[in-house]
Structures are given as C-alpha cells and as structure tokens.
C-alpha cells in the first residue's frame, strides 16, 4: 500500500512537471518581444570603414577613389563621423568622341579629394536568410553631412546626402554599400553650375570594441 | 512491481521526449511566411535609364512573375520607353547650330543630333531571391523584405531620332533589386536593371560614329507588386 502511494506520488510529480514546463513556456511566450536581444549592437562602438568609391553620373570625366570613414555610434540608430575620399580622375572617352565628331569641347573639371563630417540615422534593420540557410543581419541607414571638395585647385563647399546598407559578417566586421550625392557649385567660364556627384561606395566596416555583451544572458 | 517500474520509466521518458521535440528538432526559422512560393506577382513600374550620353529613356513597365518556390520565379516584362534629349545633346545641337561653317550649308536650320532611344522591350525573365527575411522600421513596424536578381532576354524596338531609323533588335537583362512587403499581398520594389541592346547610339553630322554597339542601358525602376493569392503559405 505504501509502495503504491509512493509510486502514485512519483507519477503525479512527473505529470505535473510536464504541465508546469508547458505552462512556463506559455507564460514566457507572453514576454517575447518582436525583436529580442539583437545579435549585433553598434551603440557605443567605433567603426572604421576603408572604402572603394566610383562616380556614377559622369559623362565627360571619370572618377574612382579610395576613402576612409570613421564613425562613432552613439546609439544603435545614430552615429557621427568624418570621411576623406581621394579621387583619381580622367577624361572619359565620350569627351574625345564629341570633340572628334562634333568639334565641341565642353569645359571639364577633375576632382582631387573630399573631406567632411556626417551623421547617420538607421531607421531600419532586419535579418535575411541566405538561400534559406544562414542568417545575415543587416540595416539600412541615411546619411547627411558637409565638407569640402577640392576641384581644379579650389575648395568648394559641399553638402552630402546618402543611403547605405550594412550586412553584418561577424561581431566586428560588416560589408557596407552606399549611394552618396556630393553637391557643390562649380564655376565654369560661361556659367556656374550646380554639380551632383553621385557615387557608389563599397566598404568594409571594422568595429571596436570587437563585440557587445548583454548584461543579462540570452 | 515490474509494471510500476515500467510506468515510471514511460512517464519520465515522456517528459524527456517533450523537451527534445520542443528544442532540438526545431528549424532555425519556425512558421516562416513563404511570401513568394506558388504566388503570382503583377508589377506596374516606372523608371528611367541612367548615365545616358545623348538620350534619356523614361520607362513604363508591366511585369508578371510566377514564383515556383520562395527563391526562384519565372515571368515576363513589357516596357514602353520615351527618349528625351540629355543636356549634352542640347549643348551639342546648340554649338553645331551656331557654327558659321555649318550655317553656310544649312542656312536657318537647327541641327538635330542623330540618336536612338529605347522604345519597346518585351522580355522573358528569371528571378532569383538569394536573401529574404524580415525587418523592423523605427523599432516599431514589422515588415518583410528580399533582395532579388533578375536575368532575362527578349526583343527590343529602338526608336530613331534626327535621321536615324527605327530598328528591331534583341535585349539582354541583368539586374537586381530590393522588395519590401508592408503587407503580405503587396510590396514596394526598387530595382536597377541593365538592358543591353545592340544599336546605333548616335551618328555625327559628318556621318561618323554610326556603328552599332552593344549599348548598356542601366535603368532605375520603382514599382509596386501585387501578389495572388493574397494569403501566403507558412513553413514548418
């Protein structure tokens, strides 16, 4: 009789344990947020991004460049930073073509460098499945700033807006793609023109400190 | 006694099985929304070619894709293009018109640079979706997104201006884009597609430069897609 009572008690305990486990899971579900602990945190971290730059909207000239961006992420959304781009420019084949074929020789200016400061805001972040397999975290950021473009041996005050996408590779590295528009006025012999230098930027973001640890474990 | 022991073992094993099923066998993404799989996508879009030397093409487009799986779809797109002069073309026409030597021969006339623009593109295409997932906007609004690649080919009709004749040719499409789903039955699309078409891009007044070349015509397209059926399937 005593043995039977012990067995019954044990069995009840086992069943209750299962129910309790299910109930705990249900209770926990209530507190699960849409986005839980982020696997990649930028807040209070510095980012250095060496980058390749290519101008997209040129006709008579052609520029590529190398750049260095340094940012400090104040929060996950906001960052401030500085940048330097060294351009390597040349005349495009179209310039030679229209000279040869139409005897028209428009005035052309080459850029030397851009140096400036900017702020970025990240309104959007998410995660992608790569062919249904590994997860890739990414975010999209907007950028605005200003600085100086050196063109034909003169400094031009320049405004800058841009849009970028950051794909996280590791806790300390990301691959960034950006579109930036550098805007300045350029005086020519006939008139002064408003120049939009639209560039494609591909860079590697290197973060320090190398990782982020949450206070509470996952 | 033996029966009791078996009962205890079964009960203990039951809770162990419960734990294993709940944690270890779960896929990395549970109940994934298959936003493309076995769905029809109809996309009206508008866009323009980029970096054109002589003629910029404004394009209206209607596309259709059937997504066989969540990551591959087949379809077609029809584009109608209208070509506008670039600032460079206007500058050249102005310079040549004002040239005294040209005016000696063409007194009182206005020089028209001979050029072509894209008129009609009818293409079959394959869409691959290597990246798909979800995103959060302003820490509040949840949505879905993908990055896709477009590859295709078909027919192109080229419109001639300034003395160049119309022509029918072929076109190759290579491009890609970003699709954002605010809701499961529609998406906002941003695509950059390169429509490669062999054509005479321009011809000078002297007659030179009239060779047919394989022209690159990258175009930025903005579109809205509607998905049918409006509901999507859900994965395991």
What is the secondary structure topology, with strand pairs?
The complex is a heterodimer of chains A (218) and B (236).
Chain A: H1 2-30, E1 45-55, E2 61-73, E3 78-91, H2 93-102, E4 111-130, E5 135-151, E6 154-170, E7 173-187, E8 192-208
Antiparallel strand pairs in A: 1-2, 1-8, 2-3, 3-4, 4-5, 5-6, 6-7, 7-8
Chain B: H1 2-23, E1 33-34, E2 39-49, E3 55-67, E4 72-85, H2 87-97, H3 100-105, E5 114-137, E6 141-161, E7 167-183, E8 186-200, E9 202-203, E10 212-228, E11 233-234
Give a brief outline of the structure.
Chain A has helices at residues 2-30, 93-102, and strands spanning 45-55, 61-73, 78-91, 111-130, 135-151, 154-170, 173-187, 192-208. Chain A is an alpha+beta fold and 218 residues long.
Structural account:
The complex is a heterodimer of chains A (218) and B (236). By secondary structure, chain A is α+β, with helices and mostly antiparallel strands. Chain A folds into two domains: 32 residues; 164 residues, Porin (Beta Barrel), CATH 2.40.160. Chain A has two helices and eight strands, in the order H-E-E-E-H-E-E-E-E-E. The radius of gyration of chain A is 28 Å and the shape is elongated. Chain B has 236 residues and is of the alpha+beta class. Chain B contains three helices and eleven strands. In chain B, strands 2-3-4-5-6-7-8-10 form an eight-stranded antiparallel beta barrel. In chain B, strands 1-11 form a two-stranded antiparallel sheet. The longest helix of chain B is centred in the N-terminal third of the chain and has 22 residues.
